[in-house]
Amino acid sequence: MNRRCGDNIVDGAFGEQCDLGGNNSEQPNASCRTDCAPRGCGDGVVDDAFGEECDDGAANSDAPNASCRSGCNAQQCGDGIVDGAFGEQCDDGDGNSDDPNADCRSDCEQRRCGDGVVDFAFGEECDDGNNDGGDGCDSGCFREFAPLSSDGHVQQALILDFFDDEGGCASGLPFSYIDEQNDRPRAGDVEAGDHVWRPYSLGIDEPCSSPCGVGVDVNCHFGGDGSGSPDQATAYGFIYLYSPDDRTAQLFGGSDDGYQVFVNGELVIDGQFACRCWADGQEEVDVNLVAGENRILVKVGENFGAFGYTLQFFDGNTGEPMLDLFTTMSP
User: Fold this and answer.
1) Domain range for residue 245?
2) What is the DSSP string of 312-331?
3) Which of 68, 139, 233, 299 is most buried, most CB within 10 Å of its CB?
4) Residue 284 CB neighbours (<10 A)
5) Strand 283-289 to 326-328 pairing
6) Which residues of the chain carry a pLDDT beneath 50?
7) In terms of Cα–Cα distance, which of 121, 86, 87 is closest to 103?
8) How far is residue 86 from each of residues 66, 80, 103, measured CA to CA in Å?
9) Residue 301 belongs to a domain with what CATH number?
10) pTM for this one?
């Protein structure tokens, strides 16, 4: 009988490395191929039971854009090879990261303003995941600051989508829907299920038809007419207030209906059972501001009718508005 591959005899002197006779096969996971070579990465057969994800034979390559790598792993973001044809802009392998200042993100896109990561080492002050202005962080990833009005009113706010409640003027104020002591939202953040933080959609001096006057008109923000829906609801407003130094300020607040105000996580006004139209100075309290960022959170409930609040900051000694304070909607 003539010697041949497939005779179940391993003829090593003639280059055979295996021979299983009739079990030699080109099927996946077979241990010996029909040419009496052992199964292996690079033979053009995907042996998935042995960890191969692909096998393009001689076309396996670690060159950019090859679909199968030399180790029979599929091309992917994170393999350290920049596959531009597959949309990758960079690939630092294990160095891909969504941490601040990383050069290459986990999706193989380059670090950039607008990717939602604050790269402070590259001059970014904020990054809200877009390149739009008017939401607290501008197109260059610098904070957008707004002064207080000439009479000390806070003129900006982030508003969290309202919660339906049936608690009268206090509405849902006894309940904490978010982390009221530590929250640091920015525009577009989602909390408490599907509730989104959005920039207040009007100026404080242009309520759509509210009888209450200057302030954050929550009804109008949500598309109502100033005295209509939403009713029986609770909403949050938030702003970052920047002070040039540590100081004590006099905070004037007003609400429709009940409200609570937190400064840097501390409850400083608890008017949750008020039933009224908001006005300036309905409550007055001294608050401690720190140099730099201060977090101002307002929780306001609505029974029926107008829905909103107003905040002002004054110097308790002179009675003058603190016009060296500034607000922004981005941390």
Assistant:
1) 146-328
2) EEE-TTT--B-TT-EEES--
3) 299
4) 13
5) unpaired
6) none
7) 121
8) 10, 14, 19
9) 2.60.120
10) 0.70
